Each structure stands twice: as C-alpha cells, then as structure tokens.
Amino acid sequence: MANLRTDNLYGVSGPDTNGSALFDGSNHLVAANATAFRVNQGSSEDFTIEAWIYLTATPDGANARIASIYHTSGNQRSYMFYVHTDDTLKFNYASNGTAGSVSTLAGGEVAHNEWVHVAVTHDSSATTVRLFKNGILMAADTGAHATYYANTSGDFTTGEDFTGNISNLHITRGTCKYFDTFIPSKQPIEEDSNTTVLCLNSSIDVLNDDKSNVFSQSAAGGVKKSTLMPFSRDDDGVTFDGAISMNSLSYMYFPTGRTDERGNSRGVCAGGSDPSGRDNDISFIDIQSKGNAIDFGDLSINSHNTAGFSSKTRAVFSFGYVDASPNVSNTLEFITMMTQGNAIDFGDTSFTSYEGGAASNNTRGLIAGGYVGSGSGAPANTEQIDFVTIATQGNGSDFGDLTLGRRGLQGCGSPTRSVFASGYQQPDTGTKTNVIDFVTIATAGNAQDFGDLTSQRWGTSACADSTRGVFSGGLTPSDLDIIDFITIATTGNATDFGDLTEGYGRGSSTSNSIRGVNFHGIDPYSNTIGFVTIQTTGNEVDFGDNTYSSHGQGSGSTAHGGLS
Predict the structure, then answer these.
(1) Which of 67, 123, 496, 506 could bridge 459 with an S-S bond, Cβ 3.0-4.6 Å?
(2) What is the average pLDDT across 254-273?
(3) 334 three-state secondary structure
C-alpha cells in the first residue's frame, strides 16, 4: 500500500503560536517611548510594517489604528497605519516632522469579518513607500515624501478605535520585504535579523513581544486575548505521494482554507482616448476591493479603441486607432498582469481594423470585427475573427466569420463559448444592431446567432463569470445606462439586469467569479469605475476612479481564465 500520512499544512505547531489581540473600539495597547517602533529616522532606512487584521465594524468617528507613533511636539503622528472611517486602508506619515506636513497612501476597502493581510514598506534605493492589501500593491509614493521622521520621544499605539482582532504585528527595520504584488504567507510571521517587533500572535500572552525588546507594552481599557487567528486550526491534512488515490462511497472533506481569497483577482485597463488625444496608459485594480485604480505601465504607442482579452496570467491588447502611420493598426501587445511594467510585443492580427471586440478563455483569445477601409478609402466593416494562443507570442490566425460585419461590438464568454454583442453597421446606413453571435472557442468556424440585446446600440462593454454574460452601456448615439445579461450556455434574448450609475458608451469591463467591473467611457471621457454582482440583478455601484479619463479602452483579468 502506498504511503498516506497527515501533515501540518501551515506550520502551526500549537496554541502558543495561535492568537490575536481583541479590541472593542475603546481600548488599545501602548508602548511608551519605544525605540523599537521608530522606523526610518532619516531617509535611508528600509523597513516593513505588516499585520493580519480582522475588522468587525466600520470605524465610528475616528480611524482604526493598526500601528501608530506620535511626535510629542504638537501631538503630531510620525506615522499612522490605519483603516479609515470609510473602510479603506491608509498610511499617513509626516514628511518633515512638523504638524501639517502629512502625506497619505490610500488602498482599497477592507472587508469585515475576515482576515486581511496589510503591509507598508519603504524601499530606500527607490525612495518609494508602498501600501499592500492581501499582497496586492494598492498605492506607492516616490520622491521627497518617502522620508519619515520618528523623533526621539513618542508613544507607539496599536488598536486605537479598532473593533476586531489584530494578529502577528511585525516591524522590521533594515529590510523592505515587498516590492510588488505577492502572496501572503499562510504561516505565522517569522522574525529575521532585522525584526524589532513581533507581537499579538499568542493566545497565552498576546501582549508579549516575541523579540524580548526592552519596552513595556500596556493595555489601555482592557484589551483581551483571543484564540482567533488568521491561520488554519486544522493541524492535520492529507499528503499524497503520487502513487495513491482516494475512492469513497461516503464523503471526502477537503481542508477548508481561507475563503476570503475566493474571487480575488486583478483587473487591468489599457489605452483609449483622453482629453489630450489617444492614450497609452495601463492601470489596474483589485476587483474584490473597491478603490481607485493604480498605474501599471504603458503600451508602446497611444492606442484608441483598444480591444483586450486575457488568460489567468497574461492580458493581450489589440491596437485600434494609433498615433502612427498607418493610423489603423493590427499590433498585439501583452503584459504579465501580476508584474507591473510596460507592454511587450505579442504579434499581429491577420487583418487591420479598429473598434473590434475580443473574448477569451484561459487558452485562446479571439479578436472579431471592426472598422476597416476599402481600397477607395470608403468606410466598411469586417466580419473576420482571428485567434491566438495567449501563452505563445505570435500572429493571429483565421478563426471564421461573424454573422454580421460591424464595429463597436464587444465580447465575453465561458470556458467553452464566446459571445459578441452590439455594433454599428456601415457603410452609409449607420445602423445600430442588437445582434448577439456565439462561437465554440476551441473549434474554429463561423459564428451562429445567439439572440438579441434588449435594444439596438453600439459601444457596449461586456464581462462574464463562468455562466452569465453582462453587457453594459452603449451608444445610440447618446450614452445609455442599460445593463443586460444572458446565460451563456443557453441561446436566447438578453434580459434587463439594472442600470448604470451614469450612461456611457465605448468603455470596457472586466470580472472575477463575483463582480463585473466597468471602466466607463462616455463621449467624450470618464474616469468612473463601477461594479455589479454578476449573479444578482440590480443597479451598478460606484467602485472608484481610474488613473485617467478616457473612452475606447481594453481590459482583462486574472480570474476565470480571463473571462473579461
């Protein structure tokens, strides 16, 4: 019989490493004039401050402090790591040690009743401060404001106005642990040679500092010890050695793990047209957390009416109308979505157009339709569909044809089926359409009729989870606030979903298993981001703001095989 054994999945050895401090909103911990907490006295010191937090209530009237140190002069905080009264994660710091000279990094919304890993770092070589939530880079500040001044006297506090639990508070001086998006460890934080503080991680004596620093940490208002912790309580799991399997007529229970990571994903947005002309910006968001977008990098050239599709790791952008000659481009570029930076050449499509649509699964991306020019220069539309293998750079290949040549369409899909909806017929008639086509993405061939949208329009945006497609906005030419949906596996007409926060056309959408997120377009421009819960009909909710105002963007996501 092959070997089957139980293992400690998370390295949690016993109750002395399991725990947190429980705060009720009126109590906190204080370390009087503790040098261990003073980071970056000057501008040349790397540091990392991180913790796991379990927020149970929105801060009421005051910010919920995770870690904070005061200047004695003017009651000025040297730094404050906290959850704001709107539930967003923030980091304030004094840029010159005087009252009023405070800079702020702001991240996404902190969920309630689940463990969230938070971190802030200083990278002295790049003079950059970075803010992270669940390992996702939320904000960065580079330059003169990346200097901290923790004076020679001042009290450190944790848990002020915080309702919930804080665990594994870790301060390390001399090390910048995180430079870009990372996966937080599922084990208790371990000290290194530069660790100055490691506390709030024991159910036996949660107030103790594991580094045995010379400071006294006292409770104000009766902070409680708690056995609640961010790591698995099930010390035992099952390890397979490659030679065994399990066959049961009863049930098999898998390790529960952390459910808060389900649906988490990064969404990206690229290109478009802004008030100054066509744009090459790329931005990103954490789809599961409301908040403003963050700069990712740049396309190689300004591109308007960009189409985007993605796998779990890569986003590919098909250029549209560009600042180059000829103005209509067949260029494809890609990014690795979890690594910020500029786009890289992927290849070319077999035809040249703009205002085409795109869809994908985790393997294959499709580019369909768009606006082209005939030999005489008269406007026309194409019905062509190209495909690429996302993991392999190269040129597009012919897939088949749409049922109707058109521009201003958009696509989405499931792992097996891609759908394309809306559009603008030319030449001459300028007729908008409500047509929905579909293809089986793994099998090249012509599209088939799926059904109709609730109204004729062009410039709609589209996203999906594994079963439902959602189409938002569009132009008639006025901006529409319509949201429609379909069940991707079942042909038929679309159904009303709800309304947008504002009408828009020529935007783009991305998604994970829970949310569909819309980067608004609007004629002429918008930086609004909104979202819907894909499986729950209803109106769009504000998400935040994009880094730039535009229309005609392309987008993608790391979730669900790039169903974006």
Answers:
(1) 506
(2) 64
(3) strand
Q: Which two tokens stand for residue 96?
A: 């010159």
**pLDDT at res. 264:** 58
The region that residue 73 occupies, defined by phi over 0 for left and psi between -120 and 50 for alpha, beta otherwise, is: beta
| DSSP conformation class of 250 | S
Is the pLDDT confidence value at 41 over 60? no
Identify the pLDDT of residue 278: 84
Interacting residues of 386 by C-beta distance below 8 A, sequence separation 6+: 349, 350, 351, 366, 367, 368, 396, 397, 398, 399
Please state the φ and ψ torsions of residue 500, each to the nearest 5 degrees: -75, 165
* pLDDT at site 202: 61
Q: Going from the N-terminus, what domains does the chain have, and what CATH number goes with each? A: 15-226 (2.60.120.200), 296-557 (2.120.10.80)
Q: Which of 518, 561, 8, 552 is nearest to 319 (CA)?
A: 552
For 102, counting Cβ atoms within 10 Å of its Cβ (0-12 exposed, 13-18 middle, 19+ buried), the class is middle
Tokens linked to 39: 């980071």
Mean per-residue pLDDT over the chain, rounded: 80
Q: What is the Cα–Cα distance from 380 to 418, expressed in whole angstroms?
A: 24
| Amino acid sitting at position 118 | V
Q: Residue 408 in contact with residue 398, Cβ under 8 Å?
A: no
Residue 168 CB neighbour total at 10 angstroms: 26
- Could you read off the pLDDT of 111-158 as tens digits, one per residue? 898 899 999 998 888 888 889 998 888 888 887 554 555 455 667 888
**Can you give the pLDDT at residue 198?**
73
Q: Residue 212: which region, alpha, beta or left (left: phi > 0; alpha: psi -120 to 50)?
A: left
Least confident interval from 308-312, 313-317, 326-330, 514-518: 326-330
**DSSP assigned state of 171:** E
Q: Which two tokens stand for residue 258?
A: 């952390």
